[in-house]
Amino acid sequence: MNSNKTQRCKDANLDVVFISFRHHLALRLYTFAFNPQLMINAIIVDDEPLAQDVLETYIQKLSNVNLVQKCRNALEANTALKEHDIDLMFLDIQMPQLTGIDFLKSLEKAPEVIFTTAYPNYAIKGFELNAIDYLLKPISLDRFMKAVNKAQKQIDLKRGSAAASAPSGPEAPDFIFVKADKKLVKVKYEDIIYIEGLKDYVIIRMDSGRVITLQTMKSLEEKLPAGLFKRIHRSYIVGIDKIQAVVGNMVEVLEKGKVKHLPIGKNYREELLAIVNENRL
Q1: What are phi and psi of 168, to 5 degrees?
Q2: What is the pLDDT of residues 9-48, one digit of tens each?
Q3: Going by C-beta distance under 8 Å and a sequence separation of 6 or more, which residues neighbour residue 4?
């Protein structure tokens, strides 16, 4: 009897932890979504592992910069920019296949850029491309922080302008229409458990069933309220209030009363686990 009672107490404590985690998680992600000064999402683009490590070490010292991905060349960086909302790019110049200068020229909509290079003769060209700063290797922490502070100001200006230009009006709707089966289907945000991507299609999973629509995960992610949903993998977006627990490399949700585990991608893991660790009991 005592052993059964002890187990019930442990289970109850776990329920409290999971419920508390869900509330803290929703609050943290809501704050990230609606306070533009909190975080800068950044990538490092450099073919030298040592140079990447130096920048990563510096970024880890800053509370306002989230390193989303380290890229070895322009092709990897181009993919990262398509898959994530990147505010800042630390960009090397001399790289194989495509130089940092040519890569930046090829982008229709580029994030803010800080060039990191061992070659001072590209500085003028860098500033002609509206780079925030031009850091010469070896880069000191002091010089790095000054460049990031400049980037923060520019990014905050952008976010402020975007918020100011957004039309004011009635409260935002709590649903979205998606095209499926030759009609527009209304889906309420509160009903969405998670969304699964399959190439050019996405499957919206709900207890009431599923909706399959022709569009990419990135395009759908941009339409969903950031405070309600979190992308955890290239192929998965989860409703924040539907997260029951984080187990290893999986997010646990309930689908039609049954436990379902969704994978956490390595590029999305850091931010999620940082929130978990900060709010552990």
Answers
A1: -85, 150
A2: 444 344 433 444 454 454 444 444 444 445 899 999 999 9
A3: none
Whether the CB-CB separation of 79 and 66 falls below 8 Å is answered with no
E strands of the chain, at which residues? 40-45, 65-71, 88-91, 112-117, 133-136, 175-180, 183-188, 192-198, 201-206, 209-214, 229-233, 236-239, 245-247, 250-255, 258-263
- 280 pLDDT band (50/70/90 cuts)? low
Q: From CA 222, how far away is CA 218, in angstroms rounded?
A: 6
Average pLDDT, the chain: 83
Phi-psi region at 209: left, alpha or beta (left = phi > 0; alpha = psi -120 to 50):
left
Strand order across the 40-45 sheet: 65-71, 40-45, 88-91, 112-117, 133-136
Can you say whether residue 115 is alpha, beta or left, with left for phi > 0 and alpha for psi between -120 and 50 degrees? beta
Do the beta carbons of residue 158 and residue 85 sit within 8 Å? Answer: no
Domains of the chain: 40-165 (3.40.50.2300), 175-278 (2.40.50.1020)
